[in-house]
Q: What sequence folds into this?
């Protein structure tokens, strides 16, 4: 293919998932998809290789192919025009239960030419607590409705059995089904666009063109890998355990080899899976690893299977980063994924000293508050913190880093909707590590309950272990969770589910980012 | 004579009418933009002016606004810095948030609080206000943005702050944008404060050149008097492309072609917008740099693709075009000013689409230099020069097609229901190929495609917009809606009287943002008939279903008031047989010898099948093989694009 046709096809194909994303956002019902765009869309070829993915959420980057693999394995030769597969089972193609994935095979003359796929985070998927992010779940079932790969659309007809489970087991079925139908419609649009393209250029031509696009993606990434130093490096870092059944330090270790043929990452030496929900399904581990590789090579390379070819990831089954069922996993996606990124950057901080950032806040500070009054409500938020400083610039303050980039809920929107009042939402000066370039500051967000009672769940990390500075830069300050009840302050653990009373104030302080370089070298 | 004046990065355009004869000027823009404006006004002997300027937009992009302070509720001082807590780039670690317009040390908190019901939880004390005023003044701020939580429900605290800061330029959020979502409201207020002193100075410097009416273009697609705009200069930000869209609205209404997709391609970027049933589409989610601008502005999608966009080869050996531009200097290779990178204009020239000179002959182009540059690029690509020319054209069109599809997808529109209205220096040249790609059946090229924005500014209606968030259940909102609309109306009437406009001619549109209770986004419906029913119908159209049981909530009341101004279309000039030249042009299937029509000489009703070119001073229309063009009244070229 000539270099112009290559670019034209790349532009055309990569637009399909983008348009799906626009449609999903336009028609979705819940704020989580609409305002925070906690969703991703992608296009796959007939062999289940990712052809294009819209730039939405990093944590979905490397994990979507696992979902398509699962669907292809479970439905060999039994997919028909108009079918859509739904799944969220983290052991069969999913990541954590709130992330619901829909897969639509695309046909031309009864032959599959590809798949339109999207994944969206549902604000509630059942389970023990509102928002489906319990702090202390021990088994997957505690975390909500588990959907193994199954047809939700059968030749264009909605299957009532699936819809009924959403009706029975989730908190706001109307909102859930609204989102689900938006997801279905987004895939239909993607499928239509792919068929149009196939009809315009021919199925055979589409197949060879995709082949060339994947090679192109690979060339882009390999060109930048070629500029990296070769060698093997390793590092480790720790998660903070959640329950008495767990060690209070859970090790993640990785060894990275950059060679002529690509990058290999081996998680040998990582601790075994744990009793709580910090376990990260392998799909999540792949996402975090792909994210780091993308940051360090060509951030603008096409997001396709070719660009992922130079990367190999190994992890032992039964480990924290590749758990066996039925271990709980809700925090794997949102917390452990961040630590995997920390470990990988740390390992490369010596050979890539000019590129690698100091550690960022390393957590998403998940807070869910729900209750029955004055009408049932469930409010989910992730709180930003400090970004680690880079060798050439300070870290950003009050920002989401690495594996997430969702937006906050406006205070005025939240107070109109829920019996809550935000009393403080500001940066905490001095929480970013000092350095030649200093780390970004963390945030303090204080929420008061104005209803008679409520349940709060906090899933957070870096409450004891600090985000590390680099090259002599200071560490960032760890975060803090507090409950203020009748004027008295009580410290709270990093992961906790607790009952709230009228007037209780929950104070979350998020970690600052690490500094880079010795503070004395800071230019005045 | 009144003229429309559009100050662009490279040229300042003037359009006026003597009777139905159109008068135009194109002057090079000057470092102090007012110089060219004043010179053109004197040169044309113009009395009144409708003015479009990017002075406010540029002040923000280049951070050259006033030294500004920000005041908000204590505990929320860093509201503008945290924003929506997202980062600008997911994977590129080099990219950080752009520097704020107001630095952290000039953000101040005031101990006060109003809750979501508009009840005061904490009254600011006089001492706190004095202390605040002292801190703001000693920060050296020239202008201040005041945005307190829930001030749109209870503006008294903001008014007290403004009073304490008397003597400084102050923008309060309940006056700039009385709507919820604190970051977006605060950001809009901060932008208003940031540009205000500069806008006042700029308009004062122009005042002496204007002897008649002096109107200024707003981003909402209307104008107001220069006296009114200085009270809300925020309305000028992003008004750059609004003139063209306003002109397109006039074309849509005059021709009955109500659905238009506007395509404005210039030197560095291409802008797209949609006109549906004769009305421009607006959004309250505009951004400038990283700053939300939450007032209603015309919804425009912009992409870095223009005549100056540079062709390059990436690390994976694909041919890319833009977003890097050669700008006005050195410009394309063909300008002969030392440019070395092949641009879209260079391949357009070498491929014969673009004639041998620009600006009606004042800027000759160096085809030899362009051809040499293209040959070098072709070598690197292992392609022939012809393949390279077509390749660059196709790639830049793919980029534009994508932007166009995005703006259609956002509204769920089908391109086949639209005609493409192409203007800007390069728009009519690439329109036909783009329309084919998107399966748009018809193209319109207006008169003066190179100065269409200036024309739009000249004929834009006077337009005022009001809004206020008043959250409550719709079934109990009747009195609130009535009171709010009445209050807005009397403010509008007062404003129009002050400017001596006839308020009886005003077209008034009241609308409401509604949602189901618990949703976080709203649907805008006109105040007419059964509101709940209209809302449900629109909800069903957009989301596929609508509940009859769920409670509907009123969120924001809006009022738009428009006083139309005179719309003149130029007389068609051509009478005799058209003047025709010939040149060779490269199309997808090879070179053709093509008739080049002098636009001024073609009479109304004339029709011809392509390939053909219609040339005029500041634009070139390409009619590819298989397409047919026709000259229609009101100075329009219509092109039927056979697929």
A:
């Amino acid at each position: 293919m000539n270099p112009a046709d290559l670019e034209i096809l790349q532009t055309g194909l990569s637009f399909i998932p983008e348009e799906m994303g626009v449609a999903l956002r336009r028609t979705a019902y819940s704020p989580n998809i609409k305002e925070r765009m906690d969703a991703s869309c992608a296009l796959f070829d007939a062999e289940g290789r990712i052809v294009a993915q819209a730039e939405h959420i990093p944590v979905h980057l490397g994990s979507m192919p696992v979902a398509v693999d699962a669907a292809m394995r479970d439905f060999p030769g039994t997919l028909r025009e108009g079918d859509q597969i739904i799944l969220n089972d983290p052991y069969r193609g999913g990541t954590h239960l709130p992330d619901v994935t829909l897969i639509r095979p695309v046909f031309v003359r009864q032959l599959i030419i590809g798949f339109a796929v999207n994944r969206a985070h549902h604000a509630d998927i059942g389970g023990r607590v509102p928002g489906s992010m319990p702090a202390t779940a021990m088994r997957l079932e505690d975390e909500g409705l588990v959907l193994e790969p199954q047809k939700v659309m059968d030749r264009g007809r909605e299957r009532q059995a699936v819809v009924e489970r959403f009706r029975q087991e989730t908190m706001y079925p109307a909102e859930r089904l609204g989102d689900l139908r938006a997801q279905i419609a987004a895939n239909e649009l993607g499928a239509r666009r792919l068929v149009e393209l196939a009809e315009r250029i021919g199925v055979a031509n589409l197949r060879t063109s995709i082949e060339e696009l994947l090679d192109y993606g690979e060339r882009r990434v390999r060109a930048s890998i070629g500029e990296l130093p070769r060698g093997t490096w390793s590092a480790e870092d720790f998660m903070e355990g959640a329950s008495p059944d767990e060690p209070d330090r859970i090790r993640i270790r990785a060894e990275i080899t950059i060679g002529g043929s690509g990058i290999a990452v081996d998680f040998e030496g990582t601790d075994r899976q744990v009793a709580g929900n910090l376990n990260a399904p392998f799909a999540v581990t792949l996402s975090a690893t792909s994210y780091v590789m993308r940051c360090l090579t060509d951030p603008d390379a096409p997001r396709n299977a070719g660009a992922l070819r130079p990367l190999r990831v190994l992890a032992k089954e039964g480990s924290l980063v590749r758990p066996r069922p039925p271990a709980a996993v809700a925090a794997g996606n949102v917390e452990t994924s961040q630590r995997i990124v920390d470990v990988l950057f740390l390992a490369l901080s010596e050979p890539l000293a000019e590129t690698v950032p100091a550690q960022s806040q390393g957590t998403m500070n998940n807070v869910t508050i729900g209750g029955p009054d004055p009408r049932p409500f469930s409010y989910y938020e992730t709180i930003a913190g400090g970004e680690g400083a880079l060798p050439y610039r300070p870290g950003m303050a009050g920002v989401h880093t690495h594996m997430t980039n969702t937006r906050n809920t406006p205070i005025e929107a939240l107070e109109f909707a829920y019996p809550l009042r935000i009393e403080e939402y500001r940066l905490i000066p001095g929480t970013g590590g000092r350095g030649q370039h200093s780390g970004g500051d963390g945030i303090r967000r204080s929420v008061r309950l104005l209803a008679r009672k409520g349940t709060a769940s906090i899933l957070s990390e870096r409450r004891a272990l600090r985000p590390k500075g680099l090259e002599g830069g200071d560490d960032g300050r760890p975060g803090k969770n507090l409950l203020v009840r009748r004027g008295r302050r009580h410290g709270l653990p990093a992961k906790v589910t607790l009952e709230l009373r009228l007037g209780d104030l929950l104070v979350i302080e998020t970690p600052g980012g690490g500094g880079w370089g010795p503070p004395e070298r800071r230019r005045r | 004579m009144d003229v429309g004046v559009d100050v662009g990065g490279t040229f300042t355009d003037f359009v006026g009418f003597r009777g139905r004869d159109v008068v135009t000027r194109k002057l090079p823009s000057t470092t102090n933009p007012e110089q060219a404006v004043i010179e053109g006004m004197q040169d044309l002997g113009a009395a009144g002016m409708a003015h479009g300027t990017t002075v406010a937009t540029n002040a923000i992009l280049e951070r050259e606004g006033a030294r500004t302070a920000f005041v908000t509720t204590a505990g929320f001082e860093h509201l503008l810095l945290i924003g929506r807590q997202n980062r600008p780039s997911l994977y590129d670690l080099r990219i950080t948030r752009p520097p704020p317009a107001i630095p952290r040390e000039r953000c101040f908190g005031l101990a006060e609080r109003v809750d979501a019901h508009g009840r005061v939880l904490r009254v600011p004390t006089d001492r706190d206000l004095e202390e605040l005023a002292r801190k703001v003044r000693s920060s050296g701020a020239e202008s201040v943005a005041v945005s307190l939580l829930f001030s749109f429900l209870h503006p008294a605290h903001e008014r007290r702050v403004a009073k304490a800061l008397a003597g400084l330029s102050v923008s309060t959020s309940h006056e700039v944008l009385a709507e919820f979502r604190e970051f977006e409201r605060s950001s809009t207020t901060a932008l208003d404060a940031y540009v205000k002193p500069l806008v006042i100075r700029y308009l004062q410097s122009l005042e002496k050149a204007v002897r008649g009416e002096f109107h200024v273009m707003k981003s909402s697609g209307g104008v107001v008097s220069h006296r009114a705009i200085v009270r809300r200069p925020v309305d000028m930000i992003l008004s750059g492309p609004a003139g063209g869209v306003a002109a397109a609205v006039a074309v849509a209404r005059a021709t009955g072609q109500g659905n238009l997709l506007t395509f404005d391609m210039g030197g560095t970027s291409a802008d797209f917008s949609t006109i549906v049933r004769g009305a421009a589409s607006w959004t309250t989610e505009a951004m400038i740099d990283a700053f939300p601008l939450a007032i209603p502005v015309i919804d425009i999608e912009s992409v870095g693709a223009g005549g100056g966009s540079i062709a390059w080869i990436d690390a994976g050996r694909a041919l890319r075009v833009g977003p890097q531009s050669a700008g006005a200097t050195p410009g394309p290779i063909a300008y002969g000013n030392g440019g070395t990178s092949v641009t879209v204009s260079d391949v357009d020239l070498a491929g014969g689409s673009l004639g041998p000179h620009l600006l009606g002959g004042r800027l000759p182009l160096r085809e030899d230099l362009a051809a040499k540059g293209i040959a070098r690029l072709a070598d690197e690509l292992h392609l022939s020069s012809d393949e390279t020319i077509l390749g660059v054209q196709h790639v830049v069109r793919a980029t534009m097609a994508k932007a166009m599809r995005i703006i259609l997808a956002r509204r769920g529109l089908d391109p086949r229901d639209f005609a493409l209205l192409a203007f800007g220096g390069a728009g009519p040249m690439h329109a036909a190929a783009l329309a084919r790609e998107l399966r748009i059946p018809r193209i319109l090229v207006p008169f003066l495609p190179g100065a269409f924005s200036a024309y739009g500014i000249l004929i834009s209606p006077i337009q005022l917009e009001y809004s206020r968030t008043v959250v409550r259940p719709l079934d109990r909102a009747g009195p609130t809606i009535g009171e709010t609309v009445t209050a807005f109306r009397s403010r509008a009437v007062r404003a129009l009287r002050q400017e001596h406009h006839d308020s009886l001619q005003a077209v008034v549109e009241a609308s409401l943002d509604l949602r189901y209770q618990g949703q976080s986004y709203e649907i805008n419906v006109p105040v007419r008939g059964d509101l709940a029913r209209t809302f449900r119908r629109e909800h069903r159209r957009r989301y596929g279903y609508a509940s009859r049981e769920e409670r509907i909530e009123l969120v924001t009341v809006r009022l738009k008031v428009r006083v139309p101004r005179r719309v003149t279309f130029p007389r068609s000039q051509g009478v005799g047989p058209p003047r025709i030249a010939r040149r060779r042009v490269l199309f997808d299937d090879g070179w053709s010898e093509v008739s080049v029509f002098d636009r001024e000489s073609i009479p109304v009703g004339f029709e011809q099948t392509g390939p053909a070119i219609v040339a005029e001073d500041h634009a070139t229309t390409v009619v590819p093989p298989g397409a047919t063009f026709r000259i229609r009244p009101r100075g329009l070229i219509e092109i039927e694009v056979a697929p």
Notes: Chain B touches chain A through 66 residues (CB under 8 Å).
